[in-house]
């Protein structure tokens, strides 16, 4: 039996986005077409892939087993296509990304695979707060920028996907019960800081900032030392951090967008290829 990659791509996209409708929008297919593809895949494997008794799209036990294999199959397929159909891409790309994404496990793995597929492209990575990255992009300091925002940015705004923001703490899980709530945050202009404060104010919960750092390493150190709580995109939360929720009286934080910014007119082939690769391998995993 051969598993069609188009069915696997649809399956993984639904798993990542949590919705047939959103997956259809991303893949350019109708919801009935998406549903039919999943039924075909289930028929081939003779296993149910989603728990349809839930209001949310939840992977079944069989679906959880398949999703890891599907990601590997698609990654190899895409790298083969890139390698054989797009050879000879050269140049350099100056990429700007938020601090915490550079320190995550997922994003560096994407860059590593891109480097393997395009060995003649040099990537220079600069980390900063999202607001600073966008401003620097406007002054032509970067070829490509990934930055968090609320959807109001328009300059060189080419693609975006949703990032779930969660409360996190270190081993001291009692830190969330302190009054006022101690916060660890980046300086003014940080979207995590903004949403933490707005969410706490809306719930009339007292807070105070006890530790400020502009880089992820400093924020992580403060969290792990038990100085306070912070907020991060779920994809960037370290394995040694604890995600908090209603059990710790932490009100849900709003989602934000991670936008990809580059000048589609002036962008080099190398920059375009990196943007496409990130959109395919990272954007689809959120």
Low-confidence stretches: none
CATH topology of the largest domain: D-Maltodextrin-Binding Protein, domain 2
Spatially, the strands of the biggest sheet line up as: 4-3-5-12-6
Q: Average pLDDT value? A: 86
The CATH H-level superfamily of the largest domain is Periplasmic binding protein-like II
CATH class descriptor name of the largest domain: Alpha Beta
- What is the number of helical segments per DSSP (H or I, 4+ residues)? 10
Order of helices and strands: HHHEEHEHHEHEEEEHEHEEEH
Strand content: 15-25%
- Cα distance spanning the termini: 29 Å
Largest sheet: 5 strands, mixed
Class inferred from helices and paired strands: alpha/beta
Principal-axes geometry comes out as globular
What would you say the CATH architecture of the largest domain is?
A: 3-Layer(aba) Sandwich
Helix content: 40-55%
Quick tags:
286 residues; alpha/beta; Arc Repressor Mutant, subunit A; D-Maltodextrin-Binding Protein, domain 2; 3 domains; five-stranded mixed beta sheet; three-stranded antiparallel beta sheet; 10 helices; 42% helix
How are the elements arranged and paired?
Layout: H1 5-17, H2 20-27, H3 31-45, E1 50-51, E2 58-59, H4 61-85, E3 91-98, H5 99-102, H6 106-117, E4 121-128, H7 130-138, E5 144-149, E6 157-163, E7 165-169, E8 181-185, H8 191-202, E9 207-212, H9 216-224, E10 230-233, E11 242-244, E12 256-261, H10 269-281
Parallel strand pairs: 3-4, 3-5, 8-9
Antiparallel strand pairs: 1-2, 5-12, 6-12, 7-10, 7-11
Can you walk through the features of this model?
This protein has helices at 5-17, 20-27, 31-45, 61-85, 99-102, 106-117, 130-138, 191-202, 216-224, 269-281; strands spanning 50-51, 58-59, 91-98, 121-128, 144-149, 157-163, 165-169, 181-185, 207-212, 230-233, 242-244, 256-261. The protein is α/β, with parallel strands linked by helices. It has three domains: 5-84, Arc Repressor Mutant, subunit A (Orthogonal Bundle), CATH 1.10.10.10; 90-159 and 257-285, 3-Layer(aba) Sandwich (D-Maltodextrin-Binding Protein, domain 2), CATH 3.40.190; 165-254, Periplasmic binding protein-like II (D-Maltodextrin-Binding Protein, domain 2, 3-Layer(aba) Sandwich), CATH 3.40.190. It has a five-stranded mixed beta sheet with strand order 4-3-5-12-6. A three-stranded antiparallel beta sheet has the order 10-7-11. A hairpin with a 6-residue loop joins β1 and β2. α1 packs across α2 (20-27). The chain is globular. It starts with a helix and ends in a 5-residue tail after the last helix. The model has no long low-confidence stretch (mean pLDDT 86).
